[in-house]
């Protein structure tokens, strides 16, 4: 294919601290909301609704894939993969175990110093997410999480510590992972709350939009602070792009898809990129009786705290329409209507490479900001045969999506990074299981915590290494 990936393109891969690190109570780390989320009792997987870690429960995330003790070996393998960038996150509770401390935990700070130094050793650029769903459990229990405005001050202090400590080591920051996921019922993670059952009467649009507003303000303050501490910092937003096509050409379906795109995707982008709530938000709030508590200074904070780049996750597309009898299908934290023209993964996520091109053009037309694709991948139940994992299905998925990134670059879209999910296998977000695997590197661990944690390079590892080596010319 044509050589249209820029020479400085950041080919990478991604993970999150709560899904790979383990060491959940080592090095002075406190408990996060992720540490109580997914567990099992006698092999039965469940989603926790308690306010503390339970002694009789097995939590896979407490060990993760033990990056905490194996980061040097893992980063060496990242170098063998050829990564130019590693999109990762910092565990808030390694830095401030309860979220309320006046002094940061030096052992936690030192751990990430060591990680960044190891990445620098191999010339791998870190792209650091400041909060990837794992807010301190203490803040959830004591303050109710992000619906409470007090969270802003705790978060900004955390950011100030990171920007100051890692000045010169980290240049690319993301304030919140998939911030717009607060707008779907699965919000216990993004809201940083506990006891938030999906069907709870407390899980309301009002509560989630209030939490979202508080995160907008926190993000804007962090952007201003990050620029002040280090003028070389580039700080971005991160949107889980929920692309929904109209199910039919019926005008009602067209309008429904447009409104869904505005609220689920563009609202969060507009506030963080343009620095103000978009005009369509006013009517949505009115029609849905949503009254967000804002302080007089919030408008100015949002205006001054706009981001430097736009990052997104993209896995699949769904359909949306007025015919409720249509078959439903799964997706990244959301469900939608089945598209008859698309195939799907074994988990029901529809595979749509062309949708990525549509999303990239749609976002860039609106914002004209550099775009990072910081999550994109295929979750499957990989099988080891004769010590090998021949994941041709993953290669096919990524190959087709990279082709559409190339087409988007040809369209004039400024894509500057691609970090597929994930660098190595990790604990799944909601269920706490290992069966659904995304990595280029296999990790020998099962849903029950059994396994050696041995790392095995998948077939996709060698394929992606060649993609990077040829800067996208050979895919």
Automatic annotation (TrEMBL):
InterPro entries: GH (IPR017853), Glyco_hydro_1 (IPR001360)
EC number, as in UniProt: 3.2.1.86
Gene3D superfamilies documented for this protein: Glycosidases
Highest taxon listed in the record's lineage: Bacteria
First-tier enzyme category under EC: hydrolase
Organism: Alkalicoccobacillus murimartini
Family: Belongs to the glycosyl hydrolase 1 family.
This protein's name: 6-phospho-beta-glucosidase
Record keywords: Glycosidase, Hydrolase
Pfam name, any one: Glyco_hydro_1
PANTHER family referenced in this protein's UniProt entry, alphabetically: 6-PHOSPHO-BETA-GLUCOSIDASE (PTHR10353:SF296), GLYCOSYL HYDROLASE (PTHR10353)
UniProt-recorded Gene Ontology molecular function terms: 6-phospho-beta-glucosidase activity
């Amino acid at each position: 294919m044509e050589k249209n990936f820029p020479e400085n393109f950041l080919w990478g891969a991604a993970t999150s601290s709560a899904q790979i690190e383990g060491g959940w109570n080592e090095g002075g780390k406190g408990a996060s909301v992720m540490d109580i989320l997914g567990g099992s009792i006698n092999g039965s997987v469940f989603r926790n609704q308690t306010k503390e870690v339970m002694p009789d429960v097995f939590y896979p995330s407490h060990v993760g894939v033990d990056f905490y003790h194996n980061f040097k070996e893992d980063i060496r393998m990242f170098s063998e993969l050829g990564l130019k960038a590693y999109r990762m996150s910092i565990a808030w509770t390694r830095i401030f175990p309860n979220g309320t401390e006046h002094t940061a935990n030096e052992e936690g700070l030192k751990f990430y110093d060591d990680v960044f130094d190891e990445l620098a050793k191999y010339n791998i650029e870190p792209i650091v997410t400041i909060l990837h769903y794992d807010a301190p459990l203490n803040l959830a229990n004591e303050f109710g999480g992000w619906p409470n405005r007090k969270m802003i001050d705790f978060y900004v202090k955390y950011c100030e510590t990171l920007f100051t400590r890692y000045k010169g080591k980290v240049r690319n920051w993301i304030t919140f992972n998939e911030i717009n996921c607060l707008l779907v019922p699965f919000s216990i993670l993004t809201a940083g709350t506990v006891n938030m059952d999906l069907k709870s009467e407390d899980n309301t649009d009002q509560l989630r939009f209030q939490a979202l507003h508080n995160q907008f303000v926190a993000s804007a303050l962090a952007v201003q602070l990050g620029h002040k501490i280090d003028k070389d910092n580039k700080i971005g937003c991160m949107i889980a792009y929920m692309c929904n096509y109209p199910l039919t050409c019926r005008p009602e379906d067209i309008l429904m898809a447009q409104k869904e795109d505005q609220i689920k995707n563009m609202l969060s982008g507009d506030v963080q990129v343009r620095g103000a709530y978009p005009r369509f938000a006013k009517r949505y709030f009115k029609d849905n009786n949503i009254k967000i508590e804002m302080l007089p200074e919030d408008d100015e904070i949002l205006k001054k705290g706009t981001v430097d780049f736009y990052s997104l996750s993209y896995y699949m597309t769904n359909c949306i329409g007025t015919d409720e009898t249509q078959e439903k299908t799964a997706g990244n934290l959301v469900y939608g209507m089945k598209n008859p023209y698309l195939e799907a993964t074994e988990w029901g996520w529809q595979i749509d490479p062309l949708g990525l091109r549509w999303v990239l053009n749609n976002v860039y037309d609106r914002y004209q900001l550099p775009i990072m694709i910081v999550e994109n991948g295929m979750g499957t139940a990989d099988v080891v045969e004769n010590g090998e994992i021949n994941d041709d299905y993953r290669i096919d998925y990524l190959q087709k999506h990279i082709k559409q990134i190339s087409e988007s670059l040809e369209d004039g879209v400024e894509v500057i990074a691609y970090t597929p999910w994930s660098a190595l296998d990790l604990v799944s977000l909601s269920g706490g299981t290992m069966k659904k695997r995304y990595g280029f590197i296999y990790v020998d661990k099962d849903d029950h915590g059994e396994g050696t944690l041995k790392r095995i390079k998948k077939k996709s590892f060698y394929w992606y290494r060649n993609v990077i080596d040829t800067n996208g010319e050979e895919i």
